[in-house]
Amino acid sequence: MSDILEQLSELKGNEAQWSDVWEVVEGATDEIEKLKQFHIDVAFELRGAIDEVRLLRAAMHDIYEVYAGSEGFIPQTCPEAYLQERVKEMANIAARHKGTAAIRDE
């Protein structure tokens, strides 16, 4: 701080240098305002991304629960068995992405 005061006292009486200093200060102020706005924009983007991740995690949970609710289903035909395997595979993907243990093969 004392360095700044010393530099300002050296500028006393020199209007040309004061004008240069003022231009630098105004430029720095503009840059600071741009940085503030940038940080605000980034914060809003981050908040949106966090909200989207929460929604996706909830969707993964719902996908997993659909399979979990059908565990007692016994396929009667080959297409049913095939579809059950595909659903189990999707549930395993959802489980991995929501942090739940994968479904065991039976």
Would you mind describing this structure in some detail?
With 106 residues, the chain is an all-alpha fold. It has one domain. The chain is 79% helix and 0% strand. It is built from three helices and no strands. It has helices spanning 2-10, 15-68, 78-98. Helix 2 (15-68) runs antiparallel to helix 3. The mean pLDDT is 79.
Radius of gyration, in Å, reads 31 Å
β-strand percent reads: under 5%
- H/E element string? HHH
Distance between the termini: 73 Å
Domains (count): 1
How many helical stretches? Answer: 3
Please estimate the helix content: over 70%
The global form is rod-shaped
Runs in which pLDDT lies below 50 for 5 or more consecutive residues are none
Largest sheet, strands/sense/barrel: none
Q: Give me the count of strands.
A: 0
Mean pLDDT: 79
Structural class: mainly alpha
Name the features.
106 residues; mainly alpha; 3 helices; 79% helix; 0% strand
